[in-house]
Amino acid sequence: MTDGQEVDGALTRRAASRIPPGVAKVLSAVEEAAESSKLWCGAAAVMAWKGGGRGRRAAATGLAALAVAQLVSNGVCKQLAGRPRPPAEWIPHDEVADRPDSSSFPSGHTAAAVAFTAAVAPTWPAAGALCALPATMVAVERVQSGAHYPSDVAAGAAIGLAGAWLARRAPALLLRHWP
């Protein structure tokens, strides 16, 4: 086992055992809301409804970034990586029974949360700040629940940031290179 793997394992065990049960329940509820991108689609609907033109732009960019991040994380990276989830015996609570069977690497939940938040924030900073709290909670929950190692979450966040960058720049790039 490499030093990086040992640190990943130690951080996973620590997060799973040190987060108080009440906090873990809140994290789990937020993660459940984010499952299948429900939370982010709901946030986009509210932004589009209440935010005028800025809200519609933020929502559209956020959803585009989320789609890119989900495609890259779940459609490509998980298929290539095949990393097992953290061992169940590391997780001292019953949430470990509820984790998916897919590859642990990267965290698709984190990729989607970060992509949406990072894409929304430049257009509507207040909405981005509001989305940052549940996005962070989703990332922490994925480790606390035993679904992911911290490095899976970090990779998901990087994919999310790349998805947001691409979603924000794709229209200008396409127009610049369109014949």
UniProtKB/TrEMBL annotation:
Its main location: membrane. GO terms for cellular component: plasma membrane. InterPro entries: PAP2/HPO, PAP2/HPO_sf. Gene3D superfamilies: Phosphatidic acid phosphatase type 2/haloperoxidase (1.20.144.10). Residues 61-168 form the Phosphatidic acid phosphatase type 2/haloperoxidase domain. The keyword Cell membrane applies. Keywords: Cell membrane, Hydrolase, Membrane, Transmembrane, Transmembrane helix. One of its GO terms (molecular function) is hydrolase activity. Pfam families: PAP2. It is found in: Cell membrane. SMART domains: acidPPc (SM00014). It is a multi-pass membrane protein. The keyword Hydrolase applies. This is Phosphatidic acid phosphatase type 2/haloperoxidase domain-containing protein. The lineage of its organism: Bacteria, Bacillati, Actinomycetota, Actinomycetes, Kitasatosporales.
